[in-house]
Structures are given as structure tokens and as C-alpha cells.
Fold this sequence. Notes:
The protein is an alpha/beta fold and 575 residues long. The chain has a domain at 2-180 and 233-310: ABC transporter type 1, transmembrane domain (ABC transporter transmembrane region fold). It is built from 22 helices and 12 strands. The chain has helices at residues 2-6, 12-46, 49-97, 101-107, 109-134, 136-151, 153-160, 163-200, 202-207, 211-264, 269-310, 372-377, 402-407, 423-427, 436-445, 449-452, 472-484, 502-515, 528-531, 551-557, 559-568, 571-574, and strands at 332-339, 349-356, 361-366, 387-392, 395-396, 409-412, 421-422, 462-463, 490-494, 520-524, 536-541, 544-549. Helix 2 runs antiparallel to helix 11 (269-310), helix 5 runs antiparallel to helix 11 (269-310) and helix 20 packs across helix 21. The radius of gyration is 35 Å and the shape is elongated.
Amino acid sequence: xxxxxxxxxxxxPYFILAFxxxxxxxxxxxxxxxxMSEIVDQGIASGDMAxxxxxxxxxxxxxxxxxxxxxxxxxxxxxxxxxxSRDVRKSVFHKVQSxxxxxxxxxxxxxxxxxxxNDITQLQNFLIMFTRIIIMCPMYMLGSIFLAFxxxxxxxxxxxxxxxxxxxxxxxxxxxxxxxxxxxxxxVDKINLIIREKLSGNRVIRAFHKxxxxxxxxxxxxxxxxxxxxxxxxxxxxxxxAMVIVLNAGTIAVVWVGASKIGQGAxxxxxxxxxxxxxxxxxxxxxxxxxxxxxYPRAAASxxxxxxxxxxxxxxxxxEEQKEPTASRGRVEFRNVSFRYEDSxxxxxxxxxxxxxxxETTAIIGSTGSGKSTLIQLIPRMFDVSEGQVxxxxxxxxxxxxxxxxxxxxxxxxxxxxxxxxVASNIRWGKEDATEEELVRAAEVAQAMDFISKKExxxxxxxxxxxxxxxxxxxxxxxxxxxxxxxxxxYIFDDSFSALDFKTDANLRKALxxxxxxxxxxxxxxxxxxxxxxxxxxxxxxxKLVGCGKHRELFDSCEVYREIVLSxxxxxxxx
Length: 575
């Protein structure tokens, strides 16, 4: 929570200005009942029209001052709230960018989206309410109580005695609503998760005719949220009527005592009217404060959820001192590497050792779940090893800054991801200042020029969010072009040719061999034909390295590799 409050420090001058404007507004509005009392008791009673006009003019001037103060106060309040939410949202976004797979798995994508958008919006709305009500209402209450005592002590004491009852009502309601507010945000997370899955898996849902199932699933989550919201509103709705009953009872008592005093000549009519006006100010202030108490639990829950992100220390951090490379450019070495996912009892990788040299192609093959993708994600430090070392150019990857390490790597993930923009902008993710010639060269190597050239706008053709307007093979080729245009020391292809036909696959590998003569190439593949000519093939089985060598050597000596080859290739192809 302290971390969240810290974001308000730059806006302290605006808070001071808002405070001054609120003070001007409150003093102006609290002066109006007193002037009205004077008009009733002195102007109307004596028939002095000049006094009435003069005092009425003062009241009108105060009303204009109050209006101007309200406008400026709302302006500064909005500036504080929107600036605060902008700064917090920016910090949360940057923090999430630094998260490793461990933190992303801990929070989940849907929860991170809810916290970044919905929770920060809750804080923004509460802050607007804070500058308009929480600062203003105590001023109104203290000023009204003081002025009410100056008019008549008995009537003021009657009303003041009601305050403990009002506070008790507010505290009781708040204790019930705070846990429900936390639950609401969790229910919003769940709805966000279902909607994300519905949108991303829309084709699968339709293909398996699961629309009704998804509708039922969403309806259940939506109903859960609705029920909690209704319960919260039911409890919150008790607050206002209870306060109105107490306040109206106090008003009746004040009028009763005031009327008795007027009959005895101990109180002027205008003074009683002024006291009633002050009581109304107090009543309205308490009612507005009750709205804040309704909003506070949800804002507090949101603040805790946002602070949880900001206070999370990523598992993967840059070393304080970076070491200089000691080996050739692009050399990758695994030394007795073992890795276990958090909260997992079994190791995903166990005692892996190998060297990938520049100018060579190292291929990784194995059955599904053998740890192929996990292994290559340790090179750019998507995860950190549990035991052993991963070295790039003779330096432990932990001794690089993440920026410098990943600058050496061109990574093509198993699931090709494109971003909304153009073909050119997606390829330029690899190199921002890439020239037109470099884009063409990268696209040619990736075998993407054939479909890019057929597009009406070529490299300026729009790419939809997630690349939904291009095929799976086209997405893979653009993702490969993105890595090629970077011209890195190390190329990592995580099963990046699976959507390509055999001819395109062969052409791409041939062009890639020319492009990467001086670089280290690491390929994860399911198809034996893709990796048969690799300089080194690593065979993984249940997280263990069971074979390392060339195709013919492994076929003769490694049972796991032989089974994979026999399941895919004919005798003629093997020959």
C-alpha cells in the first residue's frame, strides 16, 4: 500500500491547490445560512430593502465564488486521479515486462490484465471521490458544527450526540463489505479468463460444437459475480436509509427545541433556520462520506492487488557485475544443467551437457514432453537453471544483462506470434532500423517473399491482432524473417518449421544454411527430415540426454532416435 501512496508525491502541489479551493468553497457556502439569517431577522423584520439588496448581493457573489472554486477543484481532482492512474499503470506494465515465466505463471494473464485495467480504474475513481468528498466533507462538518454552536448550544449538542450512532453504522457496514470487495475482483479475474479463452479458442470451440458449454461456463461465472455484487449492494444499501433515519430524527428534535425557544423569545427565527441549514450540511457531508465508505473496500482490495505486482521481485534479475566474453562469438555450452519448474516434484531436465559451436547446426529431437522447448528457453533466460550452468561465449548467462544476452539471440518460438501492424513492422521487431533491402533479404531467406509479393500492399499489408488474417505457415515464415533480419550470433528455432510443407521446409533450410554460416543454429524439431543433416543431434527422453551425434551414428547407437526415425521415414528415405 505504501508503494501505491508513493505515486501521489508528484501531485502534492495539486492537492494543496485543491485544499485551498475546497476551503474557499466551504467558507463561501457556510457563510450563506448566516447571511440568510440576517436577512430574515434584520432586513425583513425592519423592512430595510437596502439592507436586503446589499446582503443578497453578497450572497450572490459568494455563490459565484463557490461555483468557480467547484470547477477548479474538479479540474485539479481529475488531474490528480488521471495522472496517478497513468503513472501506476505504466509502472505495472513495465513491471510485468520484467517478469519471468515463473511470475507470469503465478499471476496468470487474465489476472494481470484485470489488475492493470480494472483495479487501477477502481483506484482512479476512488481518488476522484477522495479529492471531492473526503477533503471537503470534514471541513463542512467541522465548520457547520462550530457555526451551529455559535447560534444555539442546545440544538447543536442534540445533533452532535447522533454522530456516534452514525459512525457505528458506517463501521458495521464496512466490516461486511471489505471481504466481498476482494471476492468481486477475483470473480472479475475469472470472467476475464473465460472471455480470453473464448476469443483465443474460438475456432476450436466451434469445431467441437462447444458453444453451449462455453455459454454455460460464462453464465456460471457471470452469475457468481452478480450474486456477490447483489450481496454487496444489499449490505451497502442499509447504510443510506439508516443514516437518513438517524439524521431526520435529529432534525425533528432540533426543530422541536428550536420552536419551543422561539415561542419563549429565546431564539430568533433566522437563527433556527441557519442551524437547520448547518445540520443539512452535516447530513449531506455524512451521506457523501458514506458513499466513500462503500467505495473504499473495493479500492483497498484493488490497491493490494496492484501493490502485489509492484512488490514482486522477479526471479530473473541482471547481475551487478557483467563479465566479458571469453569464447568465440555465438558459442553455447550446457554444463550439467538440471531444471525443475516451481511447485513440480519431478525435474523437467536432468544433467544436460553439450556444446553448440558457431558455424554449426545443433538439432534437438525427442518425444512430446521430453523437455526440448524447456531446454532452449534456458539460453535467453526465460527461466534460470536449477543446477549447473548455461554459458554463452564462455560467460554464464546470469552474468549478462538480459538486454545484452538477448541481443545475441534470434528466437523463433514454437507458437508464432505476430502483432497488429504491417508485414514490415512485424519483421522490424528483429531490427528497428532495418532497410527495405534487409527486409526483402530476410523475407527471401524465410521463404516469405512469395506470399508477400502477392499482397496488394506488399510489406505495407496490414497484419491483424495475433496474425489472424494470415495462415499458420505464413505466420511461421514471418516469425523466422523477424529473427533473420536481426542477424544475431545465435539462432534458436523452436519447432518453427512444423507448419511448412516439405518443399518450403527444404528451401528454407538451404537458404538458412547460407545465411547462418558464421552463427550458431539450434533447431528443435519433430520431423527427422528437418534435422538429418545437422552437425549435431541431441536426443531427449523424459528430460534426459540419451543421445548426441550425427544422424547415422544415432540411428545405429540410440534406440530412442531409431524409433523416431522408423516411425517417420521409409527405408528409401533413410538411405
